[in-house]
Structure formats: C-alpha cells, structure tokens
C-alpha cells in the first residue's frame, strides 16, 4: 500500500483566486460542496485581488478595459478616479467574506500529477492536497511575454507588468510596443509627459461604436476554435480590435496613435528599420501574457499544436481538469460563465452533493478592512 504523508483530501481544488477562481468557488458552494471539507481555493498571493493587485497605480477605474461583477454581489459604483489596484482587490476581499469561500494563501502550486488511485496530487510549498477534480484559474499575469528581436539596447526595457505610471518617463522618448488595450493605456498616460512612438506587428483594427453581443459571440468563437484544436491561446481582445474607451480617446487627443510597423532589430541606443535608426530612452513592451499552466505539465495535456485542447472548460485529454480564465474565458464576463460551466461538469462527474447554500447578504466592502 502506498502511503501519502501530509496530504489533505478534498473533492475539488481550485488554483487561483482571481475573477475566474472566485466565480468557480461560488458555484461550488452553490451546488452544495462544503468549504474546506469538499473543496479549497489555493492562491499564490498574500491577499485578495488576483492580478488586479499588481496593476499600475496609474490605472483608474475610469480607464479599466471592462469589468463585470462576480455572481451574486455587485461592485458598488466606484470613484472613476480611484486606482483599480485598490478598488477591485477590496471588492474581491468582500466577496470572499460574503460567501465564506475557503481561500488558502499564500500557497504556490508546484505541480499537479495523477496518483495510481486515480486522484490528483497537488504539490505545493505549503503541503499537498489530493482531489478528484481540479479547476485551474491561474490566469496569465505571472507569465509576461517578451518577444525576441536581435540586437542589444542599452537603455531601459520593461514589460507592461512592471509599468508603474508615466512620471518616471518625463521628458524622454519612449517606444511602446503592442497593439492591445495595455499599449493604449501606456500611450494615453506617457504621452502627457514624454514623446511616444508606437509600434505594432500588425495594423491595428479599430472598432467604432459599442461592442455588440453578436460581435462578442463571434470573437469568442474564433478563440474557442483554436483551443479545441490544441493551438496556442489567443486572447479574446486580440480578435475584437480596439474600441472606443477613455484611454483610447485620450491617446488620440495627445496625437499618440500614429502607429509605425515593427522594427527589425534593437540597437545600442534604440531600434532600427533597415538603415533607419531611431534613438529612444526606454522601451515598454505591452506584448501580452501567456497562460500559467506549467504546473500541469506532469499530466501531459499539451498537444502537438503547442496548447491544451479544451472543450468548453474541460481538458479533452483529462475530464478531471478544467481551465477557466483560459482562452475564450480570459475576460471578466467570460471568467464568470466559465466558472459556472466548469462546476456543472464537475458535479456531473462526481455526483451531486447533498448540501445547500445560502449567501450572507450583509457583508460590505468596509467590513473586509479594504477600501
């Protein structure tokens, strides 16, 4: 008989307590699974907030690129000038308290593997858990993507994940790389205090007017098609184009949206297109992120196409594993829906629990000690 020391046995482990993980945890409670006894949420951060807690202090609620409430708890109307890194973590903290979610932190998951008895072994820096099913909600923030370009630049380079606002770039010439909402945010702020140059690999696609529900379904379908085929994930934003936003309008007013094609190489003092060189003081790489799924490697889920094949939220090659906040659900509204869908499938896999859950309705943001 194999003996597994220092392990905690539950039915479901959720990894990550951002929007997707909290949504999944809520639906697990709603379907009758008991906190701690039947499921836990393992979160690597010291406090609530997910990736929002690490965003730039300059990102205000007025310039957030879309945010949707978690199920069964509305975010009170925030001050548009309030930093998103304070408002959203406070909201998440209140949500965890309101629904008594079993979040254990800080816990860093090292690996997920399959035991001979069919249970999953979740190895962490704080002991091990075993489970019958797993919901992976680790997001992408911890894996910023930096593309390779030949050459060497001696000035400052930073990824958007390390961007902390425009003040440090005052009076400089700053190259911003990337065609998404993050690049637009940086341009809208830095162009106030510095000269900016914007470069992208592809010609940006601009979208006038509101983003319709039909357009949203079409965009999600494109991303879903890729993950079903096991191809590397593309974000939903990558297929929706750039729409009207506070940040976009401000960048446009500042004349910061004159896009140039991607450079060929880095140089000592800047970048170059063929024989033409441009000297810059700093480069901000707003080039996106990649899914944090390295801990799932022992399960052998990665396909020959480079990604994990997903049907809905379920890993095609292992029905015990669900990925939420991944691919088509990598948005706040998509994460909510994915959390519910994953739990529905897991309940079918495990069999319906007998418990019942009623949410507490009196918890407010102020009760969590976070603003």
Automatic annotation (TrEMBL):
It comes from the Bacteria. Keywords: Oxidoreductase. GO terms for molecular function: flavin adenine dinucleotide binding; monooxygenase activity. InterPro entries: Auxin_biosynth/cation_transpt (IPR050982), FAD/NAD-bd_sf (IPR036188). This is Cation diffusion facilitator CzcD-associated flavoprotein CzcO. It comes from Kitasatospora gansuensis.
